[in-house]
Amino acid sequence: MRVAVLSDIHANLRALDAILAEVGSVDAVWHLGDVVGYGPDPDAVVDRLRERGAIGVQGNHDLAAIGGDVIRDFNVDARAAMEWTRRTIASATRTWLAALPIRRAIGSYSLVHGSPRDPTWEYILSESVAAANLAILATPRGLFGHTHLPVAYVVGDDRLGGDVVGSLTPQPGSSLALDGRRALVNPGSVGQPRDGDPRASALVLDVTSHSVTWVRAAYDIEATQRAMRAAKLPPRGIARLGFGI
Ligand code: ZN
Question: How many Å lie between the centroid of ligand 1 and the Cα of residue 232?
């Protein structure tokens, strides 16, 4: 069974459609949150995910979009974009975002936005933080987003027989067989990549063989930027899409 794993779509419909076309026929679509925020198409992105029967979890931007004072923790640009998102989204979108759980387990995979121990907010950016989270992971394997960086943290044996966590930064098209190893895997961001490659990033997961393949898809970035300009979204957020930072 092939699953498209998408994270941090950030209301970028063109990026979402490009990556769905790139992964082709899949048996399921899973998402890791931050469906909205930053981008110009929050309702259309949620509609597309509903059409595809996507299941997933709530990210910090999804949480902020439904209200409350968490918006105070956002930086200036994220906050301005979130205020626009709150004004813009349909009530059906708000209801869909509010119903997302912060974590879920599907077979041997845990899905979270940030980390297993702090699903909404923690960034996994180092092997030591990954190791602490792998130690409490309730399933053998976990999928996470939030950092917008494609990566895998995998538990292996050191020469003394202890567990060590190693990391792999994939190239587009890289595959990794997880075999029986515990791992935390990040697909990168669909709608706002930050690894220096502006193309949409995602993961194809084979849940039978437990292998993962990272994919990238070029899309019409300028069209997304035009839509953001028309919505008067923050200029820095518009510019960074072109650089993938
Ligand atoms: Zn995000």
Answer: 20
